[in-house]
Every structure is written in structure tokens, then in C-alpha cells.
Design goal:
heterodimer, A: alpha/beta, eight-stranded mixed sheet, B: alpha/beta, Urease, subunit C, domain 1, TIM Barrel
Chain lengths: ~425, ~450
């Protein structure tokens, strides 16, 4: 009993610490609300984890801790649009099970939700939070239908506190297995996805009919793969090359669910098609580069060389065409590299504001959570960052990060891990 | 929303495009003889007139083909180019997959085949399965997107395969890399027949299920539609004559087996692919109404190819089989004209007969002969211009037109080559100069 009490007391103390002070006001700062023009000499008031007020004529409440914002800019917290930060990947158990066709549901775990895999101890959470990321849309990524993504805030002691939305989209990859197990080819994967979509539609039909009147009707067989697919508000389909982008636009149009494309290396060649189709996209910030262990003698095609050269211009092309897009980290390990990758897109013609939007309001809109995240707006979750200098520049300094109304200070970026391979690889310096 | 508008716009510009005249050429029409010193008038992508004494209308683009030869664009009835996967080898019946889903209009193989005079190709699934995936007929419209490659209105196909390839996965492999791999039925020719028969029994049940459902709906009853099965749907289409079967085969016995199974289930084999022993059962093939698409002189590359003879095409043709020659190879595809020429030496075919093996005959096999395969007024302007007679080893493709549009021009290709090389070199240099980017780690 005593122990229970003390745990409870400890918990309360933690809560009290986290929610202290009762309000925060950032005073006299430049506020980049994320939606519309920036406000100069404005104030943002945060209370109980939410944004209470924002504007030029807003006064700091008497009970608020005041952050003097002169010379600083407040941005909405950055969002990684497709991430694995803080997610314990669903480990494959043993060798891949042999599948004899779509009925064996190969590489399918539609029912898994990233929200159930969140691990607050993942060191990447603190690292990227320190760089200004306050949320991420995290996914299980292993499999053809890997599972449901969730929006999480990048701070908290318990997974439950971190989750903002538990089901925002199904991660689909076009991975194929060996020659021996279905699907063993790209066209096999595509056929499988198509069949699963049809099966889900049929399942819904039969289940609805059964629920209405089970008497005299054989009960439909329970299928968690189909239940998981039906519970997905949208599908994420991969597409990098222009050929793939056009292929997935056509394929996605066949499907019953809305979809989002991710990858986008050659979006600079397919922006008008994306615009015409009205498909939002997620752009991988890990720009393609020559493999570090590539054979120096290897002759690459013009198309591949061009894609490596022009990929960072894809965001600008998308912005010009009016396609809704968000950025994602694509496994970039160091926050500074991630910021530099954004800078490359800006150098390739993307307006600064559009770059910020692709990391704030756009991902929130794409995943249907812009009513609570993505901009500094009254009533939304208090996720924001206070920055000295321009984001994405090497000299930018993130002063404070506020997640769910709680203020954090950045921890220094850990020293660069030593490269595993010290031998010269041949290709890189030539 | 914009798409239809654009399409209309493009149709309009095609309409407005000036006519083209190819003149002073030796025209090998294939179906209407040879016209020396003739002209072809092309309007709106179609052949408007063929003959001598055709005046070029005002504003027409004129291609002077003095001393050159024009033949119908070559049609390859068996190719695997321009696809990003070929075999779904995991299952014995892979009819749920289709080449159309994985076409790659930017595959350089398309351009190379075009440079060899090919304008249309039947892109087949591989031969790993007794019943393979769905196939598509494409025009080699290099530079257009995947949708525009499709031969509009061509009957879709499906690949079947008999013999060694589909049964190989049923036997333990001698390769140490494949030890312990799960074996896949069938392992014998008997098993291949069984797989096909089982699949069609299943397809008939499926067909009946849907009929029953449609009948109920027609009677005004309430009914839930059956589950759609993407594996069985194409087989029902085969039963209903809406999808052509292109069956990979070698030996005479398996050819007869397949024709019997098809007769039993009431469908047709549209083409026998390879059919290297077709000469042994040519009458039976002709009686079934199947076409045969074979090699000129490939043999002995595996056991079931030992009885092949270079007279195969000619013998089958004389016995009344509709015969074509195919490449089954991105490389051979570029010189199907000389493949056709071999049948004059082996089998004594005439020039026109030899040319028909790579033009009008494959067009008939694919049921696109009202559109392509010969040079006749009203057909698509799919034309290949050679500097010498195409049945000569020395002939080089000069220009290739599809729908009246020049898709390959030898002079232009050669002159652009240097510029393209330079552009590539520039990109390589630029990449070397670039500092390492995001995600890259290098010792500091």
C-alpha cells in the first residue's frame, strides 16, 4: 500500500513538473504561424498543452512564464512526414513464411498500429526534438502491408501520452520475396495489393449483410488482414522514378481508398501529372547519391545521373505545380544532415516558406490532423519552436522546443559516430 | 479533370499535323506486291494512299527515300522488353499478374528494338508457370508514357508454358544456392497438364458462380456478388474467347496435349510459342486453328530443343499453319529481318513469304491485321525504311514511323550521340565536385 502510494506520488510529481508552469508566453517575437504571413512583435500564449492565444496585441497573462522573444522567431514544431523515430519495428520471426498465393496474406500486418510500438526511450526522439522536430508520423515499415501509421509527439514518458492520432495511414511497400514465395515479382506485389483491396471490399459487404441479418446466412470468416486494411484511412504507396509515379497514380486510381505517394526522387519530371491527379506526396529528404561502395568502373545511365543531380529540385517543381507535399527524413541519421537536405531543396529553388510548410502544416493536412497540429493557431496543440536565425542554415540555433506545452532545451548533437569502414571506398573522392 | 481536355487538344494537333509523303521508294507492301519507285501518303497517322504518281499535297513533310526500301513495321510476337518483371514464378498459376502493371516506357530496349525496325511487340510473361501472367501488345512509341505504349484495342493475352520450364521448380535443384528451396508442383509434363486442367475446372466453377449471381440480379432477387478472384478472371476470359492464349512449348507430344485440353474445355490456343517440333504436328496445329511463332534456327540449347530444325517455319507454313518468327530476346529483336531471310535458304520461302513472317502473319496472330502488318491504304502508318533490301545482311534501318510519326531516325540518332555523351560527362564531373550531402558520412 505504501509502495503504491509512493509510486502514485512520484507520478503526480512528474505530472506536476511536466505541466509547470501553468502557462508560458513567448513575448515580442517574430511568429511564423505556418498559415499566412509572419507576425512581427507578436506573443504566443500556451496553457495546458494548448495554444491559448497568438497575435500582436496579445498580452502575457500574469501567471505565465515569459520567454523574451526579441530577435527570435517562433515556428510551429517540425513534423517528420514518414518516420520510424521512436518505433520498435515489428521484428520478423524466423524465415519468411512460404506463401502460395494471396490467400496466405504474405508480408501483411495491416492490423499493427505504430502507436502500439512506440518506445519513448528511442534516442532519436531527443536528438531530432533538439533540432526542432516536435512530431513525427511513424510507421511500421516491414512488409508489403506493414501496418498503420500514427502521429506522435516527440516527448513524453509513456507511449500513450505521445500519441496524437493512432491510425492515419497504411504503409505499403512493393517488396517481393524470393522466386519460391508469392509474390516473387513486382507485378506479383501489385496483383496482391489489388486482390487484397478487392477482398476487403467484399469482406465489408458480406460482414455488413451478416450483421444486418445473420439468420440463414453463413458467417463470414474473420480476417484481421482485411479488418486492418478497412480501418486504414489512406494508403501510402512508394514511387520514386517518373515511371513509378505515373504507374502508381494509375494504380491508386483503381483502389477504393485514398492514397499518398512517397519517395519522389524524379518528381521534377512528373509534377504536372501529380497535380492533375490531385495526389498529395511525401518527399524523401535523403537525396539519392552514388553508392559509397559502388564499382568505380560502373557506367551509369544518363537517367540515373540526372536523377541524382535534379532530385533536390523536385520540391520546387511540386511547389510550382501546386502539388501538396510534405518532407520526410528517409532514415537520415543526423539532425544536421536532415536540415542540410532541406537547404539543398531551397538552393534548388524551393521558397523558404514552402520548405517550412512541408515540415509543418502540409504533413498535418495530408494525414488529416491539421485541426490539432501544424500551425500556431488558437486551440491547437502547443508544439512550437523558438529559433534564432533561419531554419535549415548551419548557423540556426534552436533555443527552445515546446511539445504539448512543455518546454525543452536542445541537447547538443552527439559527436559523429566513427564510420564503420575506414578504408577508402574509391568512388567518393574522385 | 484536365486530362480529357489535354487529350482532345492533342487529338486536335494530330489532326492539324501536316501530311507526310515518303517518295521514290521501293515499297514492299507484303500483301499487295512490290511497288518500285512508289510513294506513300500519310494523313492523321494512317496510310492515305500507296502507289506511283502520288502528288505531295501543299505543306506536306516529304521524306525522300530514293534508292531505299519501305516495309511494314516489324511485329515481334514474343518479346520481354520494357517490363520491370517477367516471371511470377512462385505459383503454378500466376494469371493474377500482368505485364501491363510493370511496363517501363523508358526502357532503352524499346529504342534499340525500334532502331531494328520493330514497331509492335507482344510483351509476354515468362515461362516459369504452367499458366503464366497476362500479356500486352504494345507499339514502340518511344518517349510516350506507359499508357500510350498500349496497342489500342488489341486483344489481351495470357502466357501458358509447357515442358521443362514450368516443371523445373518441381524438382530438387543441383544448385547449392537453391538447396532447401520449397518445391513447386508440377515436376513432370503430366503435372503440367493437370495444373492447366485443374485451373480451368476451377475457372468454370467461378464462371458459374457469377452467372448464378447475375441471373439472380436479373430476376430482381437480392444477392451479394461473389468474391472477385483475379487469378480466375483471366481464365474465364479465355473460356469466353476474350483473351488469347500464347503457349510456350517445344515438343510435339506436349503440343498435342495442350490442343486436346483446349478442345476439351472449349477454348482456342491462339499461338504456340517456340513450337520447335511444330513441323511434326503441323496438320494438327492447323486443324485447331492455332498459329505458331517460332525461331529461325535456335536449337539444342536444352533437351527439349534437340529436335528443332531450321525448316520448321517453312514446313508449318506449307501445311497451313499461320507462322511468325519471333525474337524472345532484346538483342535478336533488332535484326528480325535477317531472321526472316533465313527461311528463304531453309525452306525456300519467297521474299514476300519471308517478310510475312515478321509482319502480316504476327499481325494476324494478334488479331491486329486490320491496323498493321502491311502497307495498305487505311492502315496505321507504321513503316520501316531500310537503305537496302531488308532481307539483305547489309540493310540498315534509316527511319521508323509509328502512326506516321518518326520515332527513329538514323541520321538524327548519330548526330545527337555526341551531344548526349557530353551532357552525361558534364553530370559526372559535377557529381565529383559536389560536397557530400545529407546522410553521407565521411571521416572529418
Amino acid at each position: 500500500m505504501l509502495m503504491k502510494l509512493s509510486i502514485f506520488a512520484g507520478f503526480c510529481a512528474a505530472l506536476a513538473l511536466a505541466s509547470e508552469p501553468s502557462a508560458i508566453a513567448i513575448h515580442n517575437a517574430r511568429v511564423f504561424t505556418g498559415d499566412g504571413a509572419a507576425l512581427d512583435q507578436a506573443t504566443v500564449v500556451i496553457r495546458e498543452g494548448l495554444i491559448e492565444a497568438v497575435g500582436r496585441n496579445v498580452a502575457a497573462p500574469p501567471d505565465a512564464w515569459v520567454i523574451e522573444g526579441a530577435g527570435l522567431t517562433v515556428y510551429p514544431g517540425l513534423i517528420d512526414g514518414l518516420s520510424t523515430w521512436g518505433v520498435q519495428q515489428n521484428a520478423p520471426s524466423g524465415p519468411a513464411p512460404h506463401a502460395r498465393g494471396p490467400e496466405d496474406r504474405p508480408w501483411t500486418t495491416t492490423w499493427i498500429s505504430a502507436a502500439d510500438l512506440v518506445q519513448p526511450s528511442d534516442r532519436r526522439i531527443e536528438q531530432f526534438r533538439s533540432a526542432g522536430f516536435t512530431s513525427a508520423v511513424v510507421f511500421p515499415t516491414r512488409g508489403i502491408f506493414a501496418g498503420q501509421g500514427s502521429v506522435i509527439n516527440l516527448a513524453g514518458d509513456k507511449p500513450g501520452q505521445m500519441v496524437v492520432a493512432s491510425r492515419v495511414g497504411q504503409y505499403v511497400s512493393l517488396m517481393s520475396g524470393s522466386f519460391a514465395s508469392f509474390p516473387g515479382s513486382l507485378m506479383g506485389v501489385i496483383a496482391y495489393i489489388r486482390q487484397l483491396e478487392l477482398d476487403a471490399e467484399h469482406y465489408r459487404l458480406v460482414k455488413t449483410a451478416y450483421e444486418k441479418n445473420p439468420r440463414g446466412m453463413q458467417r463470414p470468416e474473420y480476417d484481421r488482414a482485411l479488418d486492418g486494411l478497412l480501418a486504414s484511412p489512406r494508403l501510402l504507396l512508394p514511387a520514386n522514378r517518373a515511371v513509378e509515379i505515373k504507374r502508381m497514380i494509375a494504380f491508386g486510381a483503381e483502389l477504393k481508398q485514398p492514397f499518398v505517394l512517397y519517395g519522389m526522387v524524379e518528381a521534377y519530371r512528373a509534377a504536372s501529372e501529380l497535380k492533375a491527379a490531385g495526389i498529395p506526396v511525401l518527399v524523401n529528404l535523403r537525396w539519392p547519391e552514388r553508392a559509397r561502395d559502388a564499382d568505380p568502373e560502373q557506367v551509369e545511365s544518363y537517367r540515373v545521373l540526372e536523377a541524382r543531380d535534379k532530385a533536390p529540385s523536385s520540391p520546387a517543381a511540386l511547389a510550382n505545380a501546386g502539388v501538396r507535399f510534405a518532407f520526410y527524413s528517409g532514415g537520415i541519421e543526423r539532425p544536421r544532415d536532415l536540415m542540410r537536405a532541406v537547404k539543398r531543396a531551397i538552393d534548388a529553388g524551393l521558397p523558404y516558406d514552402a520548405a517550412v510548410r512541408a515540415l509543418t502544416l502540409s504533413p498535418a493536412e495530408i494525414y488529416g490532423v491539421s485541426d490539432r497540429l501544424g500551425s500556431i493557431d488558437k486551440g491547437k496543440i502547443a508544439n512550437l519552436i523558438v529559433v534564432k536565425g533561419n531554419l535549415f542554415e548551419d548557423g540556426a540555433e534552436v533555443k527552445y522546443i515546446i511539445v504539448d506545452g512543455v518546454k525543452y532545451e536542445p541537447v547538443p548533437e552527439p559527436p559523429q559516430p566513427a564510420p564503420a569502414e575506414r578504408l577508402p571506398t574509391g568512388g567518393e573522392d574522385r | 479533370m484536365r486530362r480529357p481536355g489535354l487529350a482532345v487538344l492533342c487529338a486536335a494537333c494530330a489532326f492539324a499535323a501536316p501530311p507526310t509523303v515518303i517518295r521514290n521508294a521501293t515499297i514492299l507492301t507484303v500483301t499487295k506486291g512490290t511497288i518500285p519507285n512508289g510513294s506513300i501518303l500519310i494523313r492523321d497517322g494512317k496510310i492515305a494512299a500507296v502507289g506511283t504518281g502520288i502528288e505531295a499535297p501543299a505543306g506536306a513533310t516529304v521524306i525522300d527515300a530514293s534508292g531505299q526500301y519501305v516495309m511494314p513495321g516489324i511485329i515481334d510476337c514474343h518479346s520481354h522488353i520494357a517490363a520491370e518483371s517477367i516471371n511470377e514464378g512462385s505459383v503454378s498459376v500466376s494469371s493474377m499478374v500482368g505485364i501491363e502493371d510493370v511496363l517501363n516506357p523508358e526502357s532503352i530496349e524499346i529504342y534499340r528494338a525500334l532502331a531494328g525496325g520493330v514497331t509492335t511487340a507482344n510483351i509476354l510473361h515468362g515461362s516459369a508457370n504452367s499458366i503464366g501472367g497476362k500479356c500486352v501488345v504494345i507499339k514502340l512509341r518511344w518517349g510516350k508514357d506507359a499508357k500510350r505504349l498500349l496497342f489500342e484495342g488489341a486483344t489481351p493475352g495470357i502466357k501458358f508454358a509447357l515442358g521443362e520450364n514450368p516443371k523445373r521448380a518441381g524438382s530438387p535443384s543441383p544448385s547449392p544456392l537453391l538447396v532447401g528451396r520449397p518445391l513447386r508442383y508440377p515436376a513432370t509434363r503430366m503435372g503440367v497438364e493437370d495444373v492447366i486442367r485443374e485451373a480451368f475446372l476451377e475457372a468454370k466453377e467461378y464462371q458459374a458462380l457469377w452467372r448464378e449471381y447475375r441471373d439472380k440480379i436479373a430476376r430482381g432477387e437480392n444477392a451479394i456478388p461473389p468474391r472477385r478472384d483475379l487469378k480466375l478472371e483471366p481464365l474465364v476470359e479465355v473460356l469466353e474467347g476474350k483473351r488469347f492464349v500464347h503457349a510456350h512449348c517445344y515438343r510435339a507430344d506436349e503440343i498435342l496435349m495442350l490442343l486436346n485440353v483446349a478442345d476439351e474445355f472449349g477454348f482456342k490456343i491462339r499461338t504456340l510459342q517456340h513450337a520447335l517440333e511444330g513441323y511434326k504436328v503441323a496438320k494438327e496445329i492447323a486443324a485447331h486453328g492455332a498459329g505458331a511463332s517460332t525461331f529461325s534456327d535456335w536449337w539444342s540449347y536444352k533437351m527439349e530443343a534437340f529436335d528443332a530444325i531450321p525448316y520448321n517455319a517453312a514446313i508449318m507454313m506449307r501445311k497451313g499453319v499461320l507462322v511468325s518468327l519471333n525474337s524472345d530476346s532484346a538483342e535478336l529483336m533488332r535484326r528480325l529481318n535477317t531472321e526472316a531471310a533465313k527461311t528463304m535458304k531453309y525452306g525456300g520461302l519467297s521474299e514476300t513469304e519471308a517478310l510475312s513472317l515478321i509482319t502480316i502473319n504476327p499481325a494476324k496472330q494478334l488479331a491486329i491485321d486490320s491496323r498493321v502488318g502491311s502497307i495498305e491504304a487505311g492502315k496505321d502508318a507504321d513503316l520501316t525504311i531500310y537503305d537496302k533490301h531488308p532481307l539483305s545482311n547489309y540493310a540498315k534501318v534509316q527511319k521508323v514511323l509509328i502512326d506516321g510519326e518518326v520515332y527513329f531516325d538514323r541520321d538524327r540518332a548519330l548526330s545527337e550521340q555526341l551531344q548526349k555523351e557530353a551532357e552525361k560527362q558534364r553530370l559526372l564531373e559535377k557529381e565529383k565536385r559536389q560536397r557530400p550531402q545529407a546522410g553521407a558520412r565521411r571521416p572529418s
